[in-house]
Amino acid sequence: MVLAEKGIDVEVVEVDPEGQQPEDLPQLNPYAETPTLVDRDLALYDPRVICEYLDERFPHPPLMPIDPISRAKSKLVISRIERDWYMPLHQLERLDRRGRPAIRRQLAQSLAAGADVFDTGMRYFLSDDITMMDCVLAPILWRLEYYGVELPPEAGAVTAYAQRLFGRDAFIASLTHTEQGMRSAS
Q: What's this model's pTM, rounded to 2 decimal places?
C-alpha cells in the first residue's frame, strides 16, 4: 500500500508460502521470507524497515510526520497495532481449527475496544490525511473476513473506517491477486 500511495512503479513477485520460493530469496534475505524489497544494490526484508525506507527515499507524499515527537508517537501506535492486532492474526494462521474461535473473539473484542480511536471525526486513523498507520492497519482489516473474524456492532466505526480505506484507488491497486481472493466482496 505504501508503494501505491506514493505512486512507485514496482515489479511484485508473489510467493506462495507453501510453494516454491524464488531461488535468489535466501541470498537477498537471511530468513528467506517475504516481504523482501530490492532497490538497486539494497535488499530489505523487515516490513517496518521497508516502509520507513520507502517513505524516506520517496518523500512525497509523506506518510510519517516530519517532526521527531509526532514521528515517535506514530511509531508507537504502529508498534501497538502490530502487538495488539497483528499477533492474534498470525496466531490464527498457525492454530488448528479448535483454537481459532478464541483468537477470533479476542481479535474482534480488541478491535471493538479501540473503536473510539477510529471515530474521532477524522477521515483516516488519527488524521485527515492517509499515513503509515493506515498502511499498517489496512492489511489486518482486509484479512478479517478471510479469517472469520466478525466485528461486533459496537465496532461500527472500525468497519466504516475500513470501507473508506478499501475504497481508495491506492489500496485497490496495492492488492495482489492472492489478496483480492481473500474477500468475497472483491
A: 0.89
